[in-house]
Amino acid sequence: MQMDMMVKPPSPPMVADAARAPDTGLLAEIAAGLSTDSDMGALLQRFLEPIVRLAGASAGAVRVLSEDGVRLVMVSSIGLPGATSGAEHAVDRHCGYCGAATDGRALVWAADIDDCNKRIGAGFFGDDCRRMLAVPLQHRGRVQGVYNLFYAAGAEPTPEIRGVLKTIGELIGLAMNNAALEAETLRARLMHERQAMAAEVHDSIAQTLTFVKMRLPLLQDALHAHDDARSLRYLGDVREAIAEAHLKLREIIAQLRTRIDPRGLDSALQSLAARFRQRSGIELIYRNAAAGLKLPADVETDIFHIAQEALANIEKHSAARRSWFTFDTAPGGFEIRIEDDGVGPATNDEQTDDGSHFGLGIMSERAQRLGGELTVGARPAGGTRVRLAFPAAGAR
What we know:
This protein is of the alpha+beta class. The chain is 52% helix and 19% strand. Helix 2 (24-36) packs parallel to helix 7.
């Protein structure tokens, strides 16, 4: 129900608490709480009682806008009759004096709240709640809610107290705005991580299973035709693809669980190179001209997994005898080169047909997150070269 805004010029204060000087200590406490209290509900409940006491009010309540912005929901109250708090749990955002404060982005003083009593029942707010001050919780013109201070008949806050209450409303509005931004950032980060995980599963496992699905009808036809040679060939393809999918799944699980070596990126890459030599039997020359480099953790993680995938491809597909891993500085940033003397890069048709090399797309996505560039091509002296160039942002 829409109520007309009722504003009355301030009159001499009627209570001792309202006449005292503004409590700057409370403002400092609220400002400190904004940076330490992550629970907005707890913050609003925590400061409502001292605000009521500072204002010389008989009761108080805090209402915040619902997510759809159409209702004011009471999240905290003190001094109100229990039945009132229940009945006033959610009201239309344009309702009465609260709506006027929300829509007008300004303090609203109601010298008589009979209109509110008539809306929900005579005397519903009790004898100690005959007047009300509605203070918007806002930041840079964006209203997050409103808090109400209720007064007995004849009581009224001074202009000085109103100024402090307005400042408190702005501080709490700032805290609520920051909390909303943080929640939105968290949602965006979670969505990005889920999309990245979905892309990784799709690129590394789903395509392999699609290859298996295509081979099974061919295997069935060969079995019906009693063509043992074709049957064995397609069976081998299926086995190899399933092994590839299993390996990729293990790699994804390992990437989700494994953290970069706490001793730093260089130590992690040296360990990676040592495992590659032991597992593959391929000679690997590792050289890091930026061994003391310190990068943000997410950057180091992407670099590590790009190198891990490049070495895995050498092990599985290159038929190489020697390989090289170079981490060097470059104009404006850094460069990583992983090379081998094997058979050279596979064509797109070969990559699709044998169900492998799906990690290339993941490597490219990681390079994009670094703001860098990934290229895969032939090594001039024969074999394959993977080159990652990325800027020096955040490097120490």
